[in-house]
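A quick aside before the break. I want you to see a complete sequence-to-structure record at least once, exactly as it would be stored in a machine-readable document. Don't worry about memorizing anything.
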Amino acid sequence: MTSRPPERQLSGTTALLQEDMSCLTSQTLRLPVSYSFSHPAGYHEQGTALAHVQHTWGNTAAPHWLTCLGYNFTCNGSIETILDMTVAEGQFAIGYHSPALHWFLDKSELETSLTSHVEAEYGKFTIIAEQGFKKLVISASAAHRTFDILSLPTSQGFQEKGIQTHSGTASIEAFEHGSLVDSRVVTGVNLQFGAAYAERTVQRMTAQQYSSPLRYKGKGITR
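That is the input. The structure line, written in tokens, reads:
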């Protein structure tokens, strides 16, 4: 491992910076933090952990917003595979690092295209990104019960407009000149769906006073 974790390098390079976008983001799933948590049932827990932290610039989040961030690790704890994807309003930036490939695809380059099929109500999406002779097919999903409401920046302040989970699975297929050159599955990924995709799901979850099972389970916090 280097002194600067590779996932932070990747998150920095995949931050979107487009003139027609109102939001810029970078993120990591492995920021060391200390926490202290008091449950309404009356018990308390504290300790240290690795946290998902996302830094967003701009006043609002794009309505058609998707992110997928996750890592695979080797048996000795080093990072083997990184997937860092942000798609918003037709723009995209995707970083994919594996033992076989080190690709970065984004809309700022010529000869790029993006095809998306999003079903937020079922907790899944498929993204096909092409740049020149490179193509990435990313299919991600998570059980609906693992999603929680996500507060997003709006012109009226932060509002509960999106949904996210940290229990997603993403399959990645990489093609070069039409031939499959790499295929991986990353588990435990963070998936986020923006307001335009998540509106109906947020309404349903709010009406049901939804509380994610990832937060509480019985009298203990689910690991």
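Two observations worth writing down. The two ends are 25 Å apart (CA to CA). The chain has two helices and twelve strands. We'll return to this after the break.
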